Automatic annotation (TrEMBL):
Cross-referenced Gene3D superfamilies: 3.40.50.1360, Homeodomain-like
Protein name: Transcriptional regulator
PANTHER family in the cross-refs: TRANSCRIPTIONAL REGULATOR LSRR, TRANSCRIPTIONAL REGULATOR-RELATED
Domain of life according to the entry: Bacteria
Origin species: Streptomyces griseoflavus Tu4000
Length: 165
C-alpha cells in the first residue's frame, strides 16, 4: 500500500487564504486544477496539495449523504440476492423490532415516491414504458418530482408482460 502524500502545512494566514481560494474555485465554481494553477501562477500539483490541505485543515468539509430513509446497504444486498440492476430500500421503520412509527406512516408514500422518482430520473430513457399498479403509486411518484408528470396518461394494457416492447 502506498504511503499517503504529505499534506501541505498551512502555517501562515496567507497559506490558509490561498488554500481557501483554491478550494472555492475547485469545489464551488467547478474550475479545473489547470485553470486554477494558471490563475494563481502555481503548478496543478500544488493546487492538488492545497486542496488536500484544505480538507485536512477543515477549511473544506465534504459530506456525502443519502436521505435517512434510504437504506443503501440493504438495497445493495437486495440487488445482489435477486440479481437486480437497481434496488432501493426505503426504511419506514424507526421503532425497535421493526415497529413502524405513526409519523412514518404519513411519509411512507412520499418517501417511496421520492425514491422512485430519483431512480427513474437516473435510469429512464426517452420512449421507455413504465407500468405502475395503482393510483397511489402514480401519485407518490409524481409528488416525488419525476418528470412523468408531463407525460400523457392513457389507458394501459391490463395484460402483464415482461421485457422490452
Amino acid at each position: 500500500m502506498a504511503e499517503p502524500a504529505e499534506v501541505v502545512a498551512l502555517t501562515a494566514p496567507i497559506d490558509t487564504l490561498l488554500a481557501a481560494a483554491v478550494a472555492r474555485r475547485f469545489y464551488l465554481e467547478n474550475r479545473s486544477k489547470v485553470e486554477i494553477a494558471k490563475e494563481f501562477g502555481i503548478s496543478r500539483f500544488k493546487v492538488a496539495r492545497l486542496l488536500d490541505a484544505a480538507v485536512a485543515h477543515d477549511i473544506v468539509r465534504i459530506d456525502i449523504t443519502v436521505p435517512a430513509e434510504i437504506d443503501v446497504p440493504l438495497g445493495r444486498a437486495l440487488s445482489e440476492r435477486f440479481g437486480l440492476r437497481h434496488g432501493i430500500v426505503v426504511n419506514v421503520s424507526r421503532g425497535e423490532g421493526g415497529a413502524t412509527a405513526p409519523a412514518d406512516q404519513r411519509h411512507t408514500g412520499r418517501w417511496l415516491g421520492t425514491a422512485a422518482a430519483r431512480l427513474l430520473s437516473e435510469i429512464a430513457e426517452e420512449g421507455d414504458v413504465l407500468g405502475l399498479d395503482g393510483s397511489h403509486a402514480v401519485d407518490a411518484l409524481l409528488r416525488g418530482g419525476h418528470p412523468a408528470a408531463a407525460v400523457r396518461r392513457g389507458p394501459a394494457d391490463r395484460g402483464a408482460r415482461a421485457g422490452p416492447r
